[in-house]
Amino acid sequence: MAERIPFIAGNWKMNLDHLQAIAFVQKLAWTLKDARHDYGVTEVAVFPPFTDLRSVQTLISGDKIELGFGAQDVSAHPNGAYTGEISAEFLKALDVQYVIVGHSERRQYHHEGDEHIAEKVANAIKNGLVPVICVGETAEDLELYGPSAVPVQQLHGALALAGGATNIVVAYEPVWAIGSGQAATPEQAEQVAEQLRYVLGEVLGGEVADATRILYGGSVKSSNIAGFLRQPNVDGALVGGASLDIAEFASIAQFRKHVGT
Question: Could you confirm whether 103 is annotated as catalytic?
Fold first, then answer.
């Protein structure tokens, strides 16, 4: 079985300008350093808004901070007449490592479907970015189809153009749990994560499936992170609101202190 390094990712959404981002990253790095955080044992990354990326990149590079960072979205197009879009090539030029693709807020508010998301995933991979592919069901989906049918369908769709991909991350984010304060149970997360790993095996092969990290997202906090990370198919968390609280996010990143292993 491949070793999967746990991954704690903080999605800032549309919060913090570039000056606030600088102060935030500095303080987060200091907090984790004081806690003697080992990034080789648990990876930690932040996902700021587009306008913050250059500032975050300069700070991380200049101060040799071990935090990773990613973007919250990417265009399906390489370049051209697409006003307001951000190309994967531009992100790669800023040393961006990761990009969130298919977040439920993009699906809901921007009407992004599986085909469009598949194009974004393919474009990210082509340019050396690691897509963090988000999948998840609404409360209505859960009632109609059960816990894994919609996430499985979404992952199949997102991977439609990703043949040969070897480095992706999948994030299971039940829409009914995001921002609600009511997280899924660790057992619920594990049930879906196991099915998602099966899909990865079908599409990308067993070796890639075994090595791919699957995150849980949705009302993650320091008091419940340990339960999720005890599950064999849950390899980390995509953290929303709690990622804007430095002490809380640092505590989530230090989940091993709560797990007791």
Answer: yes
- Out of 103, 119, 137, 190, the active site residue is 103
Q: Is the pTM of this model over 0.90?
A: yes
Look at residues 253, 239, 254 and name the one whose alpha carbon lies nearest to residue 13: 239
Lowest pLDDT segment from 107-116, 140-149, 210-219: 140-149
CB 169 within 8 A of CB 178: no
Residue 181 has pLDDT above 80, yes or no: no
Q: Which residue is catalytic, options 43, 105, 119, 173?
A: 173
pLDDT for 146: 83
Residues in a beta bridge with 213: 169
Report the candidate in 220, 172, 169 with the shortest Cα–Cα distance to residue 192.
Answer: 172
Strand, coil or helix: 17: coil
Residue 261 has pLDDT above 70, yes or no: no
**Amino acid at residue number 243:** S
Q: For the segment 5-27, what is each residue's pLDDT rounded down to a tens digit?
A: 999 999 999 999 999 999 999 99
Helix boundaries (H) for 63-185: 88-93, 104-109, 114-126, 139-145, 149-158
Q: Give rounded-to-5 percent helix, strand, coil for the chain.
A: 45, 15, 40
* Domains of the chain with CATH codes: 7-259 (3.20.20.70)
Alpha-carbon gap, residue 144 to 217, rounded angstroms: 21
Q: Which residue, chain included where needed, has tokens 């930690």? A: 44
Structure tokens at 54: 């250059």
